[in-house]
Amino acid sequence: NRPIQFAEFELDLAHRKLYRDGKPVALYAKAFDLLVFLIEHNGEVVPKGEILDTVWADQFVEEANLSVQISALRKALGESKNQTRFLVTVPGVGYKFVADLHSPGEDVVSGKHRVEGYVLSDEDGASKEGSRERLPPGRAAVRNWILGFTVLAVVAAGLVGGYFYFNSTQKPKITSLAVLPFVSEERADREYLGEGLADSVIHSISGTADLRVVSRNSAFRFRGNEPDAKAIGRELDVDAILTGRIINQGENLSVRAELISTADNSVIWGESFTRKLADIERLQGDIARSISEKLRLKLSSTGTHILEKNQPADPDAYQLYLHGRFHLNKFTDEGFFKGRDYFQQAIDKDPNYALAYAGLSEAYNRLCGYNAMPSSECFPKSRIAAEKAIELDDGLADAHAMLASTKHFYDWDWPGAEKNFRRAIEIDPNNAEAHQLFSYHLTGMGRFEESLAEMRRAHDLDPLSIETTVGIAEILYFQKRYDEALEQANRALELDRNAGFVHWTIANIYRQKGMLNEAIAQYERSIPLSGDSADEPASLAYAYALAGRKDEARRILKELKQRADRQFISPCALAIVHSGLNEKDEAFEFLERAYSSRDFMLTLLKIEPTFDRLRDDPRYSDLMRRVGF
Questions:
Q1: What pTM did the predictor assign?
Q2: Angle ∠(453,308,311) on CA atoms, nearest 5
């Protein structure tokens, strides 16, 4: 376990660390393995094939992986293309490590020997003839004690993996993947560019049915310069992560992408792309396509890969589109409005830009879903944009999902909605939002088991999503499986104790269990955490009414009606409060207003328990018929 020293470096085999002048040097696990292997062969030319077979034993990799790790080693050792100290390239053959090795207190063992029959080359192309010499005294001993340290680990790995290796006819596959936001190392104002590029890669590889690609919502939680692939793998249950770095180089932009194994933090594949800054808008899709093509060689996938087919005629349109996605994915009302404006600007630049229409449709859809605008104002605009996107490119899963959402929540066209949801999932089986929205549709239809399957699939693709976690609880709540729903909702609360809508869901469950005091406490907890949402105070008023605290219920109802004069408040929310107060005529008055404005909450008429007090009224049956149930 004694360290190996060469020049100002010290290699600590016991702790797998490399130090330079006593300071640790960042080095990926696979680069460390490569360094150890080359030091074992200090002074020898090692063919590339032998390196790949040993360092990447039983892994399906290409020669490019070796180049990636050699480059990483050169960087760690302070070398450049024109100045090599330890790593010598033998063109067409392999590499040679040359250094004077020793352990503290031991004699130096030189590794700088000439090699017969090869032309040695530095990275700058300079070459020199060499001749083979025998290993010096002590060289074999140094090699043996290094090998002795690693042999136990090799044997252990062989015992664990041997069965699977010898009983499998295929190389190990990557069956699951997370794409992290690319990091802009020098320009914080280009965060949108890193996220946009990662989004493009996700879209490029998500169409593969036998590859699980984690949703951006979960993957983008892991930001930073030095991601721990093993830790991320445990959190997201994936085989690999894709990372990227964006570096400004004068007039050029350099993008470095790496596929990293979550088993051991080793780099499986990597490639660099350099583009002119002036051309980066038009070439973003090319970079994403090139990455996905490389990945397909590793993934052994038979599914259809959906590559970005839309390159805008105006390069500025792509930048505007990326800005739109960046703001849309903030999941705030302000972000939805900003996203909408950027997508519209992109369309103004290029009226045939399908992706921008799909983004615009999603922005309006979210503005409806979060009650930031009345349904009658935003859903029709969402439909128009989605239909235009599909007209320009029928292969956009997001556009089909948004059109399906509009057909469900606004048009009340149940068969049409299901058709478009299924089309979206057919195009992109890894689209978590399409599965989630389809689950909402099936829930409204009362098809709970199918709905649970879709929501659980969405959660599998977006495992850190509070929405999918609590979405499972909501379906169980509608099924009247209240204890299971409460257990699931508490799991969502573990993800974020300050998520107002999770407390609201828990309160709803308590209310249905008859635990009104507990429900009221949760409603009161949810209101300050939910911004301007009217759902939480309306539900609290309903619970107050059920508990006999009618004055408090009427006080909240009055406040909500006053707010409705200056902002959109769902008429259904007000109808629910009147229902709790047993004021049926007033409740149906607001339900009629909801019908006139096509309030999307009417899609819950068949299943929502807060409407139970109205179900025996003929007016309710008539309303359900008109909505389409």
A1: 0.68
A2: 145
